[in-house]
C-alpha cells in the first residue's frame, strides 16, 4: 500500500466510526410512557432528523474525500496534517448532532445548539477546502492523470459553494429546524454536485 493509500485507509476508519456513533445517540424509548411505544417513538423525531442529516453530511464528505484521494499519488506532511484536521472535525459531528436533537424543540437552547452544529459544519467545509487548496497549489501530489491547471481553476467555485455554511449560523438564531433542513439540502447539493478532479485529455490513438 502506498502513502496515499495508508492515509485514505486511516481516514476511512475515522469516517466509519463517526458515522456509526450517530445511531448510538438515538435511545430506545420506554413503552410505559403515556401514549404507548408508538407515541414515544414519534416523540423522538428530532433525533431521527438530526441522524439522517448528519449521516448524509459525513457520508457525502467521505465520498468526496475518496474521490480526491483516488487521484493523489503521494503525500507530504502538510497534507497529512490538513487531513488530520479534517478528520478531527468529522469525528466531532456526533456531539453537536446529539445536542441539536436534544434541544431542537426548546425555544432558547435550540438556537445555540443549531449555531454550534452550523459552526462545526463551517469548520468541516473550511478544512476540506484547505486540503483541496494545498493539493492544487503545485499539483505535485497528484498522479499524471490530473490536469493541475484546470484543478487550480476550480478553487473559486469550490470556495463559493462553502459560503452557504456560514449563512446557516445566522439562520440558527431564526429557526433551529430550518437550520437542520438547510444542512440537509446542502448535503444533497454536494451529493449531486460532487467535487470533480479535472483530468488530462487522453490522446486520440488515431492521431499521428
The count of DSSP E runs of length 2 or more, i.e. the number of strands, is 0
- Estimated helix fraction: over 70%
Strand content of the residues, in percent?
A: under 5%
How many helices? The count is 10
Summarize this entry quickly.
Helix content is 73%, strand content 0%. The chain has 208 residues and is mainly α.
Q: Which tags fit this structure?
A:
208 residues; mainly alpha; 10 helices; 0% strand; elongated
How would you sum up this structure, described in words?
The protein is mainly α and about 210 residues long. Helix content is about 75%, strand content about 0%. The protein is built from ten helices and no strands. It has helices at about 5-25, 35-45, 45-70, 75-90, 95-105, 105-140, 150-155, 155-160, 165-170, 175-190. The longest helix is centred in the middle third of the chain and has 32 residues, at about 105-140. The two termini are about 35 Å apart.
Amino acid at each position: 500500500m502506498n502513502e496515499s493509500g495508508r492515509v485514505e485507509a486511516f481516514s476511512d476508519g475515522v469516517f466509519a466510526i463517526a458515522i456509526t456513533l450517530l445511531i448510538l445517540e438515538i435511545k430506545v424509548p420506554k413503552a410505559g410512557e403515556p401514549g404507548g411505544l408508538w407515541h414515544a417513538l414519534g416523540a423522538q423525531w428530532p433525533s431521527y432528523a438530526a441522524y439522517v442529516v448528519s449521516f448524509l453530511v459525513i457520508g457525502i464528505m467521505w465520498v468526496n474525500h475518496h474521490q480526491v484521494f483516488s487521484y493523489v499519488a503521494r503525500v507530504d506532511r502538510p497534507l497529512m496534517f490538513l487531513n488530520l484536521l479534517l478528520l478531527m472535525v468529522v469525528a466531532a459531528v456526533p456531539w453537536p448532532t446529539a445536542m441539536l436533537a436534544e434541544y431542537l424543540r426548546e425555544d432558547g437552547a435550540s438556537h445555540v445548539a443549531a449555531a454550534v452544529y452550523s459552526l462545526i459544519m463551517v469548520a468541516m467545509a473550511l478544512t476540506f477546502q484547505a486540503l483541496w487548496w494545498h493539493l492544487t497549489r503545485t499539483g505535485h501530489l497528484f498522479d499524471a492523470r490530473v490536469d493541475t491547471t484546470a484543478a487550480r481553476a476550480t478553487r473559486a467555485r469550490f470556495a463559493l459553494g462553502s459560503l452557504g455554511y456560514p449563512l446557516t449560523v445566522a439562520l440558527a438564531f431564526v429557526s433551529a429546524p430550518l437550520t437542520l433542513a438547510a444542512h440537509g439540502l446542502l448535503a444533497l447539493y454536494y451529493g449531486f454536485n460532487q467535487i470533480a478532479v479535472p483530468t488530462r485529455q487522453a490522446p486520440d490513438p488515431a492521431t499521428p
